[in-house]
Write a structure and sequence with these properties.
With 136 residues, this protein is α+β, with helices and mostly antiparallel strands. It is built from five helices and six strands, in the order αααββββαββα. A hairpin with a 2-residue loop joins strand 1 and strand 2.
C-alpha cells in the first residue's frame, strides 16, 4: 500500500486531530514520514482540517476558461480566451479536422482563425465554439 492510500484510509478509520497522531499511526504501519512530508501529501491529496479533524475533501474542479468567438467578415474569426491560453488553443485548432480552418495566429489571450471559403464563416464559428467547449 502506498503512503497516499494509507493516509486516506487512516483518516477514514480514525478521528485524527493532530498531524503527530497520524504520523504515529503511519509509523505503526512501517511508514516513517516527517511532518513536512506529511504536509506535502496533505496538499496533494486535498486533506484539510475541518471541524477539528483532518479530512479528505474533493478538490474543486478548475473553472472552464471562458471564451468568446466573434466574426470579422469576410473570413476571420476572433477568439478571446483566458490569459496565456491562446497559443495552446490555436495549436489544437490547427491540428483539428475542422473543415475551413486555414490557419491561426495567436497572441496571449486572443487568436485569429482564418476561414476558407468565406461562406463557411458563420457555420465554422459554431463549430469552433463547440470545439472550444470540449477542448478549452
Amino acid at each position: 500500500m502506498n503512503i497516499d492510500q494509507a493516509i486516506l484510509r487512516l483518516l477514514k478509520q480514525h478521528r485524527i486531530t493532530e498531524q503527530a497522531e497520524l504520523l504515529l499511526h503511519l509509523e505503526q504501519e512501517g511508514l516513517n514520514l516527517t511532518q513536512s512530508t506529511l504536509s506535502r501529501h496533505f496538499r496533494r491529496l486535498a486533506v484539510v482540517k475541518l471541524d477539528g479533524r483532518y479530512q479528505h475533501v474533493e478538490a474543486p474542479r478548475p473553472p472552464t476558461p471562458a471564451f468568446s468567438v466573434d466574426t470579422a467578415p469576410p473570413n476571420i474569426l476572433v477568439v478571446r480566451v483566458g490569459p496565456g491560453l491562446a497559443s495552446s488553443l490555436a495549436l489544437k485548432l490547427d491540428q483539428s479536422d475542422l473543415e475551413g480552418v486555414v490557419g491561426t495566429v495567436a497572441g496571449d489571450d486572443t487568436l485569429i482563425v482564418v476561414v476558407k471559403p468565406p461562406e463557411r464563416l458563420h457555420e465554422l464559428r459554431r463549430e469552433v465554439e463547440a470545439f472550444l467547449t470540449r477542448n478549452a
